[in-house]
Specification:
Number of helices of chain A: 8
Structural class of chain B: alpha/beta
Oligomer: heterodimer
Largest interface: A-B, 21 and 23 residues
Distance between the termini of chain A: 49 Å
Radius of gyration of chain B: 26 Å
Distance between the termini of chain B: 59 Å
Number of strands of chain B: 17
Helix content of chain A: over 70%
Strand content of chain B: 25-35%
Order of helices and strands of chain A: HHHHHHHH
CATH topology of chain A: MetI-like fold
Number of domains of chain B: 3
Number of helices of chain B: 16
CATH class of the largest domain in chain B: Alpha Beta
Shape of chain B: elongated
Number of domains of chain A: 1
CATH superfamily of the largest domain in chain B: P-loop containing nucleotide triphosphate hydrolases
Largest sheet of chain B: 6 strands, mixed
Chain lengths: ~200, ~375
């Protein structure tokens, strides 16, 4: 029998794991996407690498962490991150590079610096695509965080696996239902955030 | 960040021996030209002639291979491009409003980057929206795609004026609009041009637009300027066949709206002047002596009207003065359009008018002569 407290603890662990990973992924991906604007090579290799990682089954990515880095929270974060990078990098890069060149040209013409163009023109224009990428990455992270319980990350995955191993439906559901609710919450949360940031010009 | 003003007004822009090559093709070849302070100079020519390249070399969006652009004695290559551009307004054909910013944010962007405080930016934006006839409360918070093409173009102009630049660069600003809207915006722009009185360089491929708006027009063809001058010079003295084709000098009457009375009048001569107190009899002899059929009557320098030889013959009594037989006369200003003057003449049944510059006569307009010059 699972105690409510255990479920709440596991849910909290799960949330920490997902959002830590997401946060670090954004910290890595967004500057990388900006850097890719200035180097075609970097853009090429970055997208190739994250595409490749995306092609590997999630469970294999999680498993390969064990011989490479070991078990625990950090390897789990890295494993999830490898999967979450692609949607953010790809979408941010597309968003940034798909700005109408005429707008960039005009911005230069009125005397905006490179930094100001990135800050005031490219970034806000990339918001819709960027948020779609981050939302997708968050949902991916949430589902892979279930798998990383195998390598000792804790979280809801642990309860689900216990339930699976012991043929205990109640335990299984005690892990699975919060995981599903969490997924729905993440989706709604990012949809809301997206609306706030991209305002009415996209409607 | 605060950008220093480079110039409060433009005295002159000198383009000296400027060349720009793309591969082996010249976009601009050894160009020499001067743009005067306060004028609206039109650059016109076929597409690919180099007119936009010339414009974009002024704000260094394109760097010349050789030669120099000198504004008020300052070589633009020695200036920081960002600083240079902050001192100019820029309007482009496709307007380039930023879709993710409201109209207010679009117009106020550069002032904001210049570190103006919020209220000052807002006041400036409100002033400019009013200036281009867009009510602030309706437009301030709208997004560009909620506006019509004409409204967007007005916002584009307001945005270019945000920093009150002494120089405006306009690259086919009305090119993308339909003809009716274009005419309407041109009319409004003429008013704005009068009010702001700054130097404007304006690229177009529409000769009617050029004549309507330009003080001087530079015809650009194959990377060179073929001729620069005011409209009447291009119409009456086209330098090459190409210029006369662009201007359509074969049909000069088309340009009646563009041409001014001063372009078509005959020069005034003091021999036409008679004093109002002169006896009619003396006047007949005097006019015969000066070989005149018509004379203009002045009373202490004030124009009273005109007399004709025929009138004098009809009423010959000794004591009659010229003031008693004078008939009214149409007068025009040198800058009135020929079309206006001709239609006024026709209404009054006259064939002749005096052109007054302030209070001084400067020329005579004879309808038959005008028509001869136009054909």
């Amino acid at each position: 029998m699972v105690v409510l407290e255990t479920v709440l603890d596991a849910t909290w662990e799960h949330i920490i794991l997902v959002y830590t990973t997401l946060f670090i992924s954004m910290l890595v991906s967004i500057p990388f996407a900006f850097a890719s604007l200035y180097s075609k090579k970097l853009a090429f290799f970055g997208l190739k690498f994250s595409n490749l990682v995306q092609a590997v089954p999630s469970f294999a990515v999680v498993a390969i962490m064990v011989p490479l880095i070991g078990i625990g929270f950090t390897p789990a974060v890295i494993a999830i991150m490898l999967r979450a990078l692609l949607p953010i990098i790809k979408n941010t890069y597309i968003g940034l590079s798909n700005v109408d060149p005429e707008l960039i040209d005009y911005a230069q013409g009125v005397g905006m610096s490179q930094w100001q163009i990135n800050r005031y023109i490219r970034l806000p224009n990339a918001y819709p695509a960027m948020f779609a990428g981050i939302k997708f990455a968050a949902i991916l992270a949430n589902s892979i965080a279930v798998l990383t319980a195998f390598i000792g990350s804790g979280g809801l995955g642990e309860i689900i696996f216990q339930g699976l191993i012991g043929y205990n439906t109640k335990t299984l559901l005690a892990g699975a239902i919060p995981a599903i609710l969490l997924a729905i919450f993440i989706d709604q949360f990012f949809t809301l955030l997206e609306k706030r940031f991209t305002r009415s010009y996209t409607k | 960040m605060h950008t220093e003003r480079l110039f409060d007004r433009i005295d002159s822009i000198q383009i000296k021996g400027v060349t720009k090559k793309y591969g082996s093709r010249f976009a601009v070849k050894e160009l020499d030209m001067e743009i005067h302070g306060g004028e609206l100079l039109i650059l016109i020519g076929p597409s690919g002639s180099g007119k936009t390249t010339i414009l974009r070399m002024i704000n260094r969006m394109i760097e010349q291979d050789s030669g120099s652009v000198i504004i008020n004695g300052l070589d633009t290559r020695k200036l920081d491009p960002v600083r240079l551009r902050r001192n100019m307004g820029y309007v482009i054909q496709n307007i380039g409003l930023f879709p993710h910013m409201t109209i207010g944010e679009n117009i106020g962007l550069v002032p904001k980057l210049e570190g103006w405080e919020k209220n000052r930016v807002k006041e400036r934006v409100q002033y400019l929206l009013d200036f281009v006839s867009l009510p602030t409360d309706l437009f301030f918070n709208r997004y560009p795609r909620q506006l019509s093409g004409g409204q967007q173009q007005r916002v584009g102009l307001a945005r270019a004026l945000a920093m009150d630049p002494p120089l405006l660069l306009m690259d086919e600003p009305f090119g993308a609009l339909d003809p009716i809207l274009r005419k309407q915006l041109q009319e409004e722009f003429l008013k704005i041009k009068m009010e702001i009185g700054r130097t404007i360089v304006f690229v177009t491929h529409d000769i009617e637009e050029a004549f309507r708006l330009g003080d001087r027009i530079a015809i650009v063809d194959q990377a060179k300027i073929v001729q620069v001058g005011p409209p009447e010079e291009l119409i009456f003295n086209p330098a090459t066949k190409m210029v006369s084709e662009i201007v359509d000098t074969e049909r000069k009457f088309k340009h009646m709206d563009t041409l001014n009375v001063k372009d078509l009048m005959s020069p005034f001569d003091s021999k036409y002047v008679f004093d109002s107190k002169m006896d009619t009899c003396d006047a007949v002899n005097e006019m015969t002596g000066r070989d005149l059929e018509t004379a203009f009557i002045f009373d202490n320098g004030r124009l009273l009207g005109r007399i004709t030889m025929v009138d004098l013959m009809k009423c010959r009594t000794k004591t009659q003065k010229l003031a008693d037989v004078v008939r009214p006369l149409k007068t025009f200003q040198p800058l009135d359009s020929v079309a206006f003057a001709l239609s006024e003449l026709k209404k009054s049944g006259e064939y002749l008018a005096l052109i007054m510059n302030e209070d001084r006569p400067s020329g005579i307009l004879v309808s038959d002569e005008v028509l001869l010059k136009l054909i």
